[in-house]
Amino acid sequence: MAALLLLLSVAHHAAAFVPNGVQMPPASGAGHNGRASPLITNVLEQTGRLYDKQRYMSTEEIMFKDIAPGTILEDADGIGEVLNQEFSDSVPLTVNDLLRDDATTLASSNEEIAKQILDSLPTEPLEHANVFPDDLIKSERVVPDAPGFRQIMRFAIPAIGVWLCSPILSLIDTSSVGLLAGTAQQAALNPAVAVTDYATLLVAFMYTATTNLVATAQEKEKNCEEGKPLTTKALITSLQLSGIVGTALGACLIVFTKMLLRTIIGNDSINPEVFTAAMKYVRIRALGMPAAVLIGSAQSASLGMQDIKSPLYVLVAAAIVNLIGDMLFVGSSSPWIGGAAGAAWATVFSQYAALAMFLKWFVSKPSSQKKEKAEKLNISDAILELTGDSNDGVPRRRQFRASVKNIISSSSARRSKVISNKKEERNAAPVFSTRGFLHGRFRKRDLVSLPEKETALKFWPYVVPVTTTSVGRVSSYAAMSHVVSSALGTISMAANQVILSLFYCLTPLADSLNLTAQSFVPSLFAKRTERAGADALKKTTGNFIKAGGIFGALMVAAVACIPIFSKFFTADPIVVAQVNSAVPYLAGTFAVHGAICASEGLLLGQKDLGFLGKAYAVFFAAVPFFMLRIKRAALSGIPNVGLSSVWQVFMTYQFVRTILFILRIKQIEAKTEKNVIAGAYE
Questions:
Q1: Where do transmembrane segments lie in this chain (predicted)?
Q2: 276 near 492, Cβ under 8 Å?
Q3: Is the CB of residue 582 less than 8 Å from the CB of residue 643?
Q4: SS3 category, 550
Q5: 3-state SS class at 63
Q6: Which 8-state DSSP code applies to residue 27?
Q7: pLDDT for 246 beyond 90
Q8: What 3 state SS string does 505-531 have?
């Protein structure tokens, strides 16, 4: 009886080291039901739960039930049943309850049972034992590092090129037309640029889908040195779909130009010269829509693969070509290549030049990547000299002995540098380049081929929610242009075009945070149910909001300089005065724009598309409602209603978006934290 009690005591305490699901087989190798006992079933799961729970409980609070609740041992001659009946599941786990010597004394009476118990015990005191090894936990819970503030800034600043390409071309057009063609031609750009630029926002789903799909494929193939078939397929499909979408968009603009302009202008008494110039501008720009959409998708794919240099190269090339074209065409007296029409031709030429450069960039490998003829090395003589006793090998053998001594003497010094070396390796990670990525896998004629149906369908989930979001944005800008064109006159139209051109050139400074968040957040969001993943996601959110604040401050500083440079965009002093009157409201608008873009990118990266779609559906109706009230006030002759009133409404719209998006992010964080805590106690 004493031996039985001793066996029960040792088995009970041994069970403390056996996580739930780890069953000890009996001596016969099968339980009372004749089935072989599984050795380990869910060690990793119990390890992870204890790992999470220890964040919220002290060591003393971790009870025996937390480690081995329920049935512990398979029924070996009735021992398992006795254990479950005799001992409570709430007995605390203490350090010195388990004596290895007690288990050793059982070896003579029952070697098999004793061997099973001995193998399950730690070989060192419990306070020093590594019951749940770190490598076991880490192998099961690999979570990407949260991008730091500097990493976000290093990525977001060059990413500005993706958003800046189209606005910089429009700004060059505005400046050239205002200085070389007069106020009427510049006024025509207000509704015309509104139609072309807002139309491209409606295909923004291509850019969002491309960034997310390419980034996801890149993450899956991060250990694949060559080929990357999933990433390649996503990129090629994006280019093919972009060509189709861009062609359809251009055709719609050509057919519906007159109707769209009348909707924007909303005034049949508009100056015929202004309306005719706007018609020409839109129809010419429509010819460049296929190239515009292709460029946007190619740049988005570059960001998805975290190549931040290619968009800048394309931006510089397009801007140079556009500037040269404006200088050649805008000042011409010809009605089809002068004035606003000349600016449109210059933009179209620059877009196709940029597209040609991008395609060549993708398919042409740099000379440094070309395979060089391998150098042949003769190691036979070196081995013979090192291992033999010839006189010719004496210097080599001495050098080898010195190298061995040097390795031994410097081993401790190298160990002391391990941590710093790892940090340097992370900071010095190689920069990926898309140059030559499609080399040998893409031909120019593939651009006009139909994409694979399976891959093309992956773009569909982004169409409706992102388009809804874009429509919400477009409604605000379109309502603004409508009010200015229909109620405030030609001078205000010209002034608003200058303001919008500056606005569109400054917004990309923060819009790049949107795509940057979509590049970093999805991999962290996938791990949000784990403590490490939730913490990394929360830290990333804070870093992006901080970056948004920095970008907002920079944009406000840039807006403060507008009164100094406004004279370079028009020769009319009245237009300059109206531009300067809107500067305070522009400053308020840009103060929160960085936070808006960062938070919207975080929501898109977490696939909160339903919320964004509903929010912009409300904005789609609300913002035009308040804009149209300004129109009625202006037409009624109410004093002090002008261009600055329009920008007051837009500034309020920005503040509302900021508060709404940040509250939504906080709500998601609270829900994630609740789920993590609940999972730790399961």
A1: 234-256, 312-330, 336-363, 544-565, 585-604, 611-630, 645-665
A2: no
A3: yes
A4: helix
A5: strand
A6: T
A7: yes
A8: HHCHHHHHHHHHHHHHHHHHHCCCCCH
pLDDT tens-place string over residues 661-679:
999 989 888 888 888 777 7
The DSSP code for 431 is P
**Angle formed at CA 621 by CA 671 and CA 478, multiple of 5 degrees:** 115
As to burial, measured by CB atoms within 10 angstroms (0-12 exposed, 13-18 middle, 19+ buried), residue 411 is exposed
449 contacts: CB under 8 Å, gap ≥ 6: 240
The residue type found at 478 is A
The token pair at 261 is 């302009």
Nearest Cα to 49, choosing from 524, 527, 529?
Answer: 529
The two three-digit tokens of residue 608, written as one number:
């909160």
Nearest 5°: CA angle at 495, between 493 and 499? Answer: 115
- Between the two ends of the chain, the Cα-to-Cα distance in Å is 39
Q: What gap in Å lies between CA 279 and CA 284, rounded to an integer?
A: 9
* pLDDT tens per residue across span 280-294: 999 999 999 999 999
- The rounded distance, in Å, linking the Cα atoms of 405 and 332 is 80
Please give the pLDDT value at position 266: 67
The strand pairing partners of 92, in sequence order, are 63
Residue 4 phi/psi, 5° resolution?
Answer: -65, -45
Q: Which of 294, 293, 290, 344 is nearest to 170 (CA)?
A: 344
Q: In whole angstroms, give the CA distance from residue 88 to residue 74.
A: 18
- Residue 95 in tokens: 């350090």
Residues near 453 by beta carbon (within 8 Å), at least 6 away in sequence: none
Percentage of residues in the chain having pLDDT higher than 70: 65
Neighbours of 504 (CB within 10 A): 22
Neighbours of 454 (CB within 10 A): 9
Rounded distance, CA 412 to CA 407, Å?
10
Contacts of 24 by beta carbon, 8 Å cutoff, 6+ apart: 18, 37, 73, 74, 76, 116, 117, 120
Query: Token pair of 389, please?
Result: 């006793």
Question: Do residues 516 and 155 make contact, with C-beta atoms less than 8 angstroms apart?
Answer: yes
Cα dist. 120→10, 117, 123, 186 in Å? 11, 5, 9, 84
How many residues are recorded in the chain? 682
605 CA to centre of own chain: 6
Other Cβ atoms less than 10 A from the Cβ of 566: the count is 20
Residue 76 has pLDDT above 70, yes or no: no
Q: How far is CA 1 from the centre of its chain?
A: 67
Give the model's confidence band at 111: pLDDT under 50 very low, under 70 low, under 90 confident, else very high: low
Q: Say how far apart CA 360 and CA 387 lie, in whole Å.
A: 54
Tell me the domain boundaries of the chain.
2-140, 149-365+441-680
Q: Which two tokens stand for residue 645?
A: 């009133």
For the four alpha carbons of 599, 586, 193 and 344, in that order, the dihedral sign comes to: negative
What is the DSSP annotation of 152-220? Answer: HHHHHHHHHHHHHHHHHHHHHHHHHHHHHT-HHHHHHHHHHHHHHHHHHHTTHHHHHHHHHHHHHHHHH
Alpha-helical (H) ranges within 256-306 are 257-265, 272-286, 289-304
Specify the amino acid at residue 518: Q
CA neighbor of 346 nearest in space, from 325, 363, 373? 325
DSSP H helices in 127-148: 134-140
**Which of 290, 297, 351 has its CA nearest to residue 319?**
351
- Number of Cβ atoms within 10 Å of the Cβ of 85: 7
List the beta strands (DSSP E) in 21-154. Answer: none
Q: Which contacts (CB < 8 Å, 24+ apart) does range 12-16 have?
A: 12/83, 12/86, 12/87, 13/97, 13/98, 14/98, 14/103, 14/117, 14/120, 14/121, 15/68, 15/72, 15/73, 15/83, 16/64, 16/67, 16/68, 16/93, 16/97, 16/98
Q: Give the pLDDT confidence of 624-666 residue by residue, as tens digits.
A: 899 889 888 888 888 888 888 899 999 999 999 999 999 998 9
Q: What are the C-alpha distances in Å from 610 to residues 24, 469, 554, 614, 668?
A: 50, 10, 32, 6, 13
Q: Are 183 and 570 in contact (CB under 8 A)?
A: yes
